[in-house]
Amino acid sequence: MDKLYRSSDEKVVAGVCAGLAHKLDLNANGLRCVVVLVTIFMTGIPLFVYAALWMILKERPTGGGVIDV
Fold first, then answer.
1. Residue 47 lies in a domain
2. What is the value of pTM for the model shown?
3. CA gyration radius, the chain
């Protein structure tokens, strides 16, 4: 089973939503919109969850800078 990581190449703020979307096989932009809407309606509680995941999750290891062409 693949671990949950923060995305290092698709991040907008910290890569939490992109990493979670990758793990759940979802669209990252769609997940970001859902997180924003939930944050608005739940008066900011998801921001604490996002910040906690930002601190807990490791950034996805990269392939050493190798680019396939």
1. yes
2. 0.70
3. 13
